[in-house]
Amino acid sequence: MTDGAAQSSSRAMPPRRSLFCKYFATLFVAAVVPLILGAAVEASFGYRDQRRQISAVLQADARAASDRIEAFTDGIRDQLGWMVQLPWSAGDDVQHKIDALRLLQQVPAIVSVSLLDETGTERVFVSRLHLNRTGRGIDMSADPAVLGARANKVWYGPVQYQRDSEPYMRIAVAGSLPAAGVAIAEVNLKLIWDVISAIRIGETGYAIVVDDSGHLIAHPDISLVLRGRASSGSFGRIKQLVGAASGAAVITGDQGKPVVALSVHAADVGWTVIAMQPVSEAFASIRAALWRSSILIAFGILIALALAYWRAHRMSGPIKQLEEGVERIRTGQFEHRIKIFSGDELQQLALRFNEMASELAISQQKSARIERLKQFLPSQVAELVEHSHELLEGQRREVAVIFGDLRGFTAFSTRNEPDVIMAVMREYYEAVGTVTTRHEATLIGFDGDGVMLLVNAPVACEQPATQAVRLAIDLQMTVQSIASKWCDAGHAIGFGVGVAMGPATVGTVGYNGRLDYTAMGAVVNLASRLCNLAKDAQILADPTIAGRVRDSIPLASLGQRAIKGYDQALEVFAVAQADLPVKPPGSGPRRREKEPQTH
Amino acid sequence: MNRREFILLIGGGLAWPAIARAQDGTKLHRIFWVSTESEPDPFLDGFREGMRALGYVEGKTVAFETHYAPGNPQALRKIVSELQRGNIDLVVSSGPATRVMTAVTDIPVLFALSGDPVALGVVKSLAHPGTNFTGSTFLSLELAGKRVELLKDIYPKLRKLAVFSNTDHPGEPLEWRATLESCRNLGIEAAYVPFCGARDIENALTAAGKVDANALLVFPDVVTLVHRAKIAEFAIANRLPSMFGWSEYCDAGGLLSYGANQRTTYYRLATYADRILRGENPSDLPVMRPEKFELAVNLKTAKLLGIDLDVSSILFRANKVIS
Description:
The complex is a heterodimer of chains A (599) and B (323). Chain A is of the alpha+beta class and 599 residues long. Helix content of chain A is 50%, strand content 22%. Chain A has 17 helices and 20 strands. Chain A is rod-shaped. Chain B has two domains: 139 residues, Rossmann fold (3-Layer(aba) Sandwich), CATH 3.40.50; 151 residues, Response regulator (Rossmann fold, 3-Layer(aba) Sandwich), CATH 3.40.50. Chain B has a seven-stranded mixed beta sheet with strand order 7-6-8-9-10-11-12, sandwiched between helices. Chain B has a five-stranded parallel beta sheet with strand order 2-1-3-4-5, covered by helices on one side. Classes of the chains: A alpha+beta (599), B alpha/beta (323).
């Protein structure tokens, strides 16, 4: 059986999209999509909140860094302010020098201080590296620092990189009295590193300082600053990107990793403080949330998978079972029963299926019985059993029609009691039936003492004429043998036969369940007429029969005879007496002579 | 919120968080220490201290191979061939040894120089060394004149200055020239007392005692650092106000010192060593310069000298006062 099923399944086209897959996909999607949507929405809102919070934190940190840097430059400015409080007078140089040296001691970032008098001439110069100078020195009145300080009281110079490495700037402060002159300090901006490196945003976030043109001034990694102008490109880009955004921007940081950055402008010095925090850290909490969601989604997916699988399996399993059941039935295993206990329509379907299978089994048993039976039936019968439907349909074909009729029966029936008549009839019918069966002919019916047989319909035979003649001979002989018994009992009964062949319409006619197979046409009339013409123990045949059996059974022509219903006389043939078996001696011929008269 | 950023965030955020730090805690890094000085080596100690502070454990994550060729830079040349063994991660050199190491081109070399590394030709520029060399410069040259000035500030009677100098030291002639120039500016006579290496130091001190100077300026280098106590003692014995380059000299009895903090410098050098061992390219690491200079004064010595000193002119700007 399994072989058969496997063959059939391999033979059958596998379904393009199985029910299981459809159910599975639908159930799965129904469960997972809302889950993912929920997580995405949550992540999106979480991101927005986190973004706002990070913006606030960065803003505060950048502002703090900017404040500290301003405090750094303001400190220097204020300290320089002390230097230019009093107007210059003769002999002040030494005192001014000590003040300037104190300033150097006070502010480590200041590398050198120049004090100029009202004319812009250098009076005191003290430095950490170079020799100090006092007394009238060079004229710096045209120096932008002096001009700037005189115009705005305070002047912040541009950032310059000494030997293209260390960032320096000059800060100049003019006294409120022009006579107090100008103080110029050279500031090593590397010292801002102390301010910047102390700023930690979160764990790994930091702040950097760039000037207006994007040159790096301070960075926790001092070596980046010391690379001078050459490295300014990337920081200019960062400054631009961050400056363009309102609030925090996600950009690629100076280390090539994404960072969240926010900038604050320090107006005094014209610098920009950029606070940045790596995205990985800034969004750590939302990332954790995403991970949680992902795990939940994964968990949900697993559950959805399991549920969808189970559901789809519950649906497609019984269907498969049914399909398999059908397949088994097809291969003849009617004892197969489907066991589905789902308690739903599928179980109902299985019940119906089982009922169908048992009915099929019964009909199969019937047909098997018929099959067995067929072995014991004549082939015509077997064929009839198998193809009765087509055979019995109305059609026109050539048939041999045989009519037989008892002679002297009317007189016999009026003279005798019904039981005697019935006994004779029974014997007669039995004899006719036996002969008919023996010759595989079709008994169309009895009509009192007459009988009509058909050869070549509905079951065809090879030589219908010959067969019909042989049948007629056998019939004549058989009936004659019982007729002789009837004669012995005192009943004078003979038997005549007519055979004709020709086209006739054959088929089943009748109504209301009562159906008869019969033949209609001229040949039937002709056979009937020949039968009437025939004398006791005589078999008359038409020219067609005679022509057909010429080679096997010679028939003797009786010459032209006028036949009722036919305009022209027809040549009639008779089966030669020699072909009839020898009749028991005695009464036969005597009665035969009488019989036609009584008929 | 813009979508691109959100995607960037999701992408960056979902990357597995435990991205391993680059540091390989188990690897043993071999550092070659070459010097034309001799042991004990305070520079090596400073560097070691820096490495320890950065979490390196000697013998476990870092191993020093020290090579000394006192006073003979040429003797270090054969060491260069030893470097070809290939298991050396970093060379650290100081002083004249750096010049010899220019033959090394495939191993990072860290240096600590008094002079100008660009002038020495080991780097292309301070901002972008562009070679396998980087390190620190002490700016000794720029400070040479300042030291004379400070000595004159504390001792206005200064008229003749004995300049005690190890000629082995690279950049020494430049340093002497800068000193001489500032002496001229300040109206001071300079007496050059050169010596060559540690073995020459006794004779040089004797010579210094005979130049009729009334103050002593000692160029900072390893030899004078190692023998600082002896030199300080000599100065006190000869009633010479003395000026040195690093505060360690004052701790040992020197009167004044002005210069970058030597330990800070070596500590920073260690941070560069760390960065190079982590894989950074020395050609991208700018040469470091000190931005803070220490003025130290030893009041005990001032008292011992027993001469008229204007200590107050120094005290208000001293970073370190030893009393």
